[in-house]
Write a structure and sequence with these properties.
Layout: H1 3-17, H2 28-45, H3 101-112, H4 124-130, H5 139-173, H6 180-193, H7 203-212, E1 215-219, E2 222-225, H8 226-230, H9 232-249, E3 259-261, E4 264-265, E5 274-278, E6 285-288, H10 291-295, E7 298-301, E8 303-305, E9 315-319, E10 325-327
Helix pairs in contact: 2-6, 3-5, 5-6
């Protein structure tokens, strides 16, 4: 596929079908959306398979998916690009594949640790006496060149992993839903920022990243509004204060006088029901624009007493245009 053709066709479609608004300065959110679309096109053009019914993004609301982790389709076998082999340095003349990176580093450390009286480093005789598997002295500069180049790429790869993991933690702390495509898109963006050339957010790299950090797709069990996410500490303190007050005064009331009420309703807002998160997590949270809209269009509100009796009266609450609830 030709990325230029895709971009040109997309521009024509947008101009023809969504041209009812006047031109305006580009906002940061609009630029972020454009970067997301560009990354998505890049993934598709590179030949990777994108399953739209399983992927979504956390940056913009209005998308939904129903991921099935158990029946996930097997992707084509791809090369794992987590730790590349530097093909330019593995020359036919110098078969560096025969030597491990640790061995090369030991050799270079030995060469560089020559005595204070040495002007040219250790002699080849001393080196070969210590490391007899090295065929000749010309391997030494090749070892050094390999370590310098490969070490830089390895460090950048580690930096990418750390930055991506930090971004993932930040997203989950905000209860944002994360999917495979999000991780791949973040990886490509970070690779550009740290100038990590040749990086491809392949399926193999993605699976290694998820396995290394114990990540898996979970069904979201609890939804939080953005207001709740931002005020989680205050909500926790309010809960603890309520429990203290309850235990202080509950002995003054009969079980039949202690009531608990809750609501059940119908969804109004479409939302993602799964996210990639940490294995072993007891509760999996997901942030939505309106928590009420994910569970309510109207609500039935039954009440039960502490002695286990259901009250006869059930409240039916309807959402009004002015965001007020009336009781019928």
């Amino acid at each position: 596929m030709n990325a230029q053709n895709i971009a040109s066709t997309l521009s024509d479609l947008v101009s023809r079908e969504l041209s009812n608004k006047e031109p305006s300065p580009v906002t940061s959110q609009e630029r972020q959306m454009a970067e997301y679309l560009a990354d998505t096109v890049k993934l598709m053009v590179s030949g990777q398979k994108v399953d739209y019914d399983e992927k979504t993004t956390i940056d913009f609301a209005g998308f939904t998916d129903e991921e099935d982790s158990e029946g996930e389709e097997q992707h084509e076998e791809e090369e794992v690009d987590e730790d590349w082999t530097n093909k330019e340095l593995v020359l036919e003349k110098y078969d560096l594949k025969s030597f491990s990176e640790d061995f090369m580093r030991q050799v270079i450390d030995f060469v560089d640790q020559a005595g204070p009286g040495s002007k040219h480093g250790r002699s080849w005789k001393a080196i070969h006496h210590r490391f007899r598997t090295i065929p000749n002295r010309h391997y030494i500069p090749q070892f050094r060149k390999y370590l310098e180049h490969h070490g830089t790429k390895r460090q950048k790869t580690q930096n990418l992993d750390e930055l991506l993991y930090k971004k993932l933690i930040d997203a989950r702390e905000k209860s944002l839903a994360v999917h495979d495509l999000d991780i791949q898109r973040w990886g490509l963006r970070i690779a550009r920022e740290i100038k990590l050339e040749e990086f491809r957010a392949s399926h193999g790299w993605l699976e290694n990243f998820k396995a290394r950090h114990r990540l898996a797709s979970h069904k979201i069990t609890n939804f939080l509004s953005h207001h709740q996410v931002a005020n989680r500490d205050a909500i926790e303190k309010s809960k603890q204060d309520f429990l203290k007050e309850y235990h202080k005064i509950s002995s003054h009331f009969k079980p039949s006088e202690t009531l608990n009420t809750d609501q059940t309703g119908v969804e109004k807002e479409l939302h993602s029901s799964r996210t990639i998160t940490f294995i072993g997590e007891k509760k999996t949270f997901g942030a939505v624009q309106s928590k009420n809209a994910t569970t309510h269009s109207y609500t039935l509100q039954p009440t039960i007493s502490l002695d286990g009796k259901l009250l006869a009266t059930i409240y039916l609450c309807l959402q009004e245009p002015g965001d007020k609830l009336c009781i019928i």
